[in-house]
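> example.struct
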């Protein structure tokens, strides 16, 4: 629940009501149990009213305050949850469960000092609560107290060295603030004690996607090792398929994702699904959306909706078999372990991965990766265990969210006043910005006098931003020139912040995807660096697709030159800001009908290959 968990793949925040079953049947406890029953029956307002009535009589009752906090928390009414769990903690300072809950809710509402104190109390009262060490460690990181955070995690390791969870969570905390090399070191330290731990092995190869200088062949082999282990432990699949091997018949295609809601991947799924020709491809959506919303409701109309969240792989597989799926497409890979457990068994004649992960799955049961010739040029076959199936011209199709402004002032911010400074910007996650990128961006800032870098950090903390800015001081750039954009909570609120940016800088070694599309949609030109592997070449694909290949650099020196030259050419910069919305609107990148036809042809090719294999 801690804010730094925002960057962990698929750590979902669940809100449920739990009781420990040890209540004495006093009038107050009976009232609390009745309120819980009302809440679980869906009568949320009556449940809250019942506890508020109890608190009018006994305002310091810790259990009534606790459960009222839980009710508010389950409804995402976080400020109210914090109010009542604080009252519960004040009334029961020696209750370790309540102190731990205060820590959890405090982190949600960004009261890190209060939360850190609550977690410390929870540890004092129950030194074996490993989750409390993790919570306090994350809060201290969010407060900029790196040394204090490390000390807390070390204390946790001393309590239980057999549990890989703390290594895993500590690594995620460090990754979330951009300390990738240290995060990988923590994972290796855990693996030294627990060499067969699948979670730490997965952590290591997943977060290497964000590290500079990774050997792509060794990276592929690490994926393949764990992929084989997953396949060996997976439930058995069918020995044969009843699918009719007619190469030209309509196809039944399944898409497996937890991202059928307001999520970055959803922006690239909705358009293709909406425009598939149902006479050629019948889509099935195997869904476990984390935060169902109005986007989820739209997806439900785009295919046969199959909720599989929480189902074991064998049960989800039975549903897929019953649907007689011809081609099953994973849309998340190692960002969602549940997907990998499902795809470790062959539930369809053809299985593929697309969109959600910039690398191989390593699973022997996944036949294809769906990419394009710019993200994965000839030779990229060596980087993955799957065969490559390439789209032309791009493997992405962007649908701007409804929250994106339909119109905007196309004037660059640097035109606000005579000699106004240039503002570069990046709204990518901090973990995507490697040390080489920081060094390169610092060179740009030094070459453009008075320029600034606007960045957006996912961690809602006033202390973490300055820590990121201090990285530039080592390269001779004053931290005051590194400006944090305001933290936003509601989906889409950040779009207006692009109007503070003159030139966007793509991150590396892990390129942006949604952020590149957003910046361009808002009229901001993006400078990208062409790397060796898929994670480093998404920007190449995007910029070629929308018609600005001249902004792709082949080296860091060229990256600096392109950014500096554009900053000095105000007329050219104005043209980009004026024309980019029209360029992306007319580009293949947002042409969903065209993409759907390309997608259908590619799926047909995969199916013909299977049919021609003598099955």
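> example.seq
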């Amino acid at each position: 629940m801690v804010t730094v968990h925002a960057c962990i793949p698929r750590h979902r925040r669940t809100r449920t009501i739990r009781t420990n079953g040890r209540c004495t049947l006093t009038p107050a406890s009976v009232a609390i149990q009745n309120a819980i029953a009302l809440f679980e029956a869906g009568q949320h307002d009556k449940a809250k009213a019942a506890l508020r009535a109890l608190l009018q009589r006994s305002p310091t009752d810790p259990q009534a305050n606790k459960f009222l906090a839980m009710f508010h928390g389950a409804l995402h009414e976080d400020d109210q949850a914090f109010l009542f769990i604080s009252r519960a903690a004040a009334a029961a300072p020696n209750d370790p469960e309540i102190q731990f809950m205060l820590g959890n809710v405090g982190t949600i509402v960004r009261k890190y000092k209060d939360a850190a104190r609550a977690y410390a109390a929870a540890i004092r009262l129950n030194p074996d609560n490993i989750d409390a060490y993790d919570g306090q460690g994350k809060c201290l990181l969010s407060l900029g107290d790196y040394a204090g955070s490390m000390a807390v995690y070390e204390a946790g390791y001393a309590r239980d060295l057999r549990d890989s969870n703390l290594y895993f969570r500590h690594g995620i905390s460090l990754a979330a603030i951009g300390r990738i090399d240290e995060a990988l070191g923590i994972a290796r330290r855990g693996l030294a004690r627990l060499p067969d731990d699948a979670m730490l092995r997965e952590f290591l190869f997943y977060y290497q996607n964000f590290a500079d200088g990774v050997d792509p062949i060794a990276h592929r082999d690490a994926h393949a090792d764990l992929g084989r282990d997953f396949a060996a432990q997976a439930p058995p699949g069918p020995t044969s398929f009843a699918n009719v091997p007619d190469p030209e018949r309509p196809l039944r295609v399944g898409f497996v994702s937890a991202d059928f809601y307001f999520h970055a991947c959803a922006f690239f799924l909705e358009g293709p699904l909406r425009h598939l020709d149902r006479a050629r491809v019948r889509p099935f959506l195997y869904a476990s959306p984390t935060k169902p919303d109005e986007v989820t409701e739209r997806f439900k109309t785009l295919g046969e909706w199959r909720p599989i969240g929480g189902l074991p792989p064998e049960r989800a597989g039975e549903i897929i078999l019953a649907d007689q799926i011809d081609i099953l497409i994973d849309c998340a890979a190692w960002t969602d372990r549940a997907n990998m457990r499902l795809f470790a068994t062959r539930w369809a004649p053809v299985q593929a991965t697309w969109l959600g992960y910039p690398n191989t799955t390593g699973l022997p049961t996944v036949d294809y990766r769906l990419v394009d010739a710019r993200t994965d040029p000839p030779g990229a076959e060596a980087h993955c265990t799957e065969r490559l199936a390439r789209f032309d011209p791009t493997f992405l199709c962007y649908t701007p969210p409804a929250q994106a402004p339909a119109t905007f002032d196309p004037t660059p911010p640097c035109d606000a006043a005579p000699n106004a400074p240039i503002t570069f910007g990046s709204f990518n996650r901090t973990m995507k910005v490697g040390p080489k990128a920081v060094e390169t961006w610092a060179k740009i800032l030094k070459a453009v006098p008075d320029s600034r870098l606007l960045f957006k950090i996912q961690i809602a903390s006033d202390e973490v931003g300055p820590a990121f800015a201090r990285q530039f001081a080592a390269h001779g750039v004053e931290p005051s020139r590194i400006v944090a954009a305001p933290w936003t909570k509601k989906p889409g609120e950040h779009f207006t912040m692009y109007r503070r940016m003159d030139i966007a800088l793509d991150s590396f070694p892990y390129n942006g995807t949604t952020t590149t599309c957003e910046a361009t949609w808002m009229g901001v030109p993006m400078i990208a660096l062409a790397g060796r592997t898929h994670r480093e070449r998404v920007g190449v694909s995007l910029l070629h697709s929308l018609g600005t290949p001249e902004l792709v650099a082949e080296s860091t020196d060229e990256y600096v030159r392109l950014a500096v030259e554009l900053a000095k050419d105000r007329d050219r910069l104005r043209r980009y800001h004026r024309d980019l919305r029209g360029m992306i609107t007319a580009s293949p990148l947002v042409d969903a009908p065209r993409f759907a036809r390309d997608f259908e042809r590619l799926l047909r090719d995969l199916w013909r290959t299977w049919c021609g294999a003598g099955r």
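> remarks
Residues 1-21 have pLDDT under 50 and may be disordered.
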